[in-house]
Give the backbone structure.
Amino acid sequence: MSTPITARELSRRVRRRKRLSAAGALLYILPAAVIIIAFRLVPILAAFTFSFFEIKMGALVGFVGLGHYLKLVQDPTFWKSLSTTLWFVVGTVPPAIFVSLFFALLLNQRIKALGLYRTVYFMPVVTSMVAVAVIWKWILEPEIGILNFLLAKLHLGQPGWLGDSRGIFQLAAAKMGMSLPRWAGGPSLALVSLAIVNTWKGLGYNIVIFLAGLQNIPQQQYEAARIDGAGPWQLFRYVTWPILSPTTFYVFIMSTIVSFQTFSLVYLMTSPPGGPEDTTKVLVYYLFDKGFTPPASLGRASAVALVLFVIILTLTLVQRRLAERRVHY
Amino acid sequence: MAGSTRARRLLGRGGIHVLLIVAGLSMVMPFLWMVSTSFRSTLEITKDPYRFSPEVLSPGYGAAGTPSAGESRSVGRVFANYVEAWQSAPFGRYFFNTVFVALSCVVGVVITSALAAYAFARLRFKGRDAVFMLFLSMMMVPEPVYLVPSFIIIARLHWLDTYYALIIPWIAKVFSIFLLRQHFKTIPQDLFDAATIDGATRFSILWRIVMPLSKAILVTIVLFTIIGSWNSFLWPLVMTHSPEMRPIQIGLAAFSQEEGTEYGLMMAATCLSVLPLLIMYFFAQKQIIASLASTGLKE
């Protein structure tokens, strides 16, 4: 026979049960939490801390306040790497959006062999950056590369691609017999070559994202517009483009974030890395240089990391905010 | 009238396919060019860099009056670049490292993600959502940001140039936890109640009921963990320095720096490095593309 228990005893038991279950639940989270704390949270906080300290042999040896940041601001190489990165972003993101949207629209015309096209376009996405870099270095070889051979056949000249440090505006002006001042030369042809390769690699990914967005547009919208007498361009301009805008924005922010972090292409394709004449030294390359090439300054590298973090955080937050509001049309 | 619209339609269709095929060729040609070059000798490339069909594969190979007169087409000769590349760098070791690291990461990610996602989705405890948000916020931080401190941590643990450095930090993935949690939340509570009444423990519910119901998501996670691990570059570049510990990507990069102008050799090595993943891709491409389209997941 069980003894009746008091309300107080009952609530005590319930609380105990709950506490046990909470402890049990923590066990489930523990493995992931240990890794994420040790190899994400701690390093992130450490990067923040390091950027205010002098570091020798992996130990903090002295507080320098904003010293690293001040040195950073005074370092012309830093500013140059920032502007190189921006040029790279400009050279990658808009082409990536327009080219991939164009092909996604074509693929969305209920065509045959859609799966085959998609499979082919996606191949470079699953291929490693290293393989892509090695293959394209061979294709872009100025002397014996296949691309310049084809261009020669079409009488389109023999660009130096990855080896050419001259700005593309400068090159274009030279074609017309003009000369531009150095500051107006624009991004180097080498950087543009990297942007082209980068766009090529990511095209399939963006196409797939756009295609998913396009397939979500309700057919009734098109039918209604057609009844109102809209032509193909008007259908695109007043139905597709506005409804697709969250997808476009997503692709825009994502490609911007990824392009800001470009490193491996520069490291692998240019020689010396970051060249010619430092015209392809992007921000993460600068960070890598400061962090791991003697004489390394881990503090300075951390300051660069924080700058990168702030840029990307801002972009992410803008994306989140606008995605939440869902103002698209 | 109707006929001419149909004709125009057909033309339009044709035009679309022409554009799509041109784009497709620009995607495939670099790969084919790699394969073609990988079968050509350095001498052959220097003589005629632009020929597409490798001599060794052409019908007239070994015929009298050609540079290859008297040669016989053996497997060893056809794959000469592959054999030489394989022998001049420890590619076997590189592959082993990559496969070992990728598989370890897969096992780790699946276990840690399933456990954590289950707790976040189905168990109640204080601070659950706060912890989950903290995890999610980690996703916003790009790899270069935590690279320098990670290097110091790995060095302090004496893990530099070991498998630990390549595996342990990557056996938990916030995005996998997130995906699984979202999926676990859609499983009806009745199922859990029924299992609990039948006396199932929490762990056996996860293992015997929830996991089998999540196969599709788990496959997605496995595929993307493999792709991410196979193709990762910056991390292993910083964390390893001896050839014995290099994964294939770092090995290939080093090889291309050493053999810079031996294009035949380099293309053979590159071919080898992309082959396993491309094979996996062709078998699982529907799954990979579909899950990518629905989640925006990349590597």
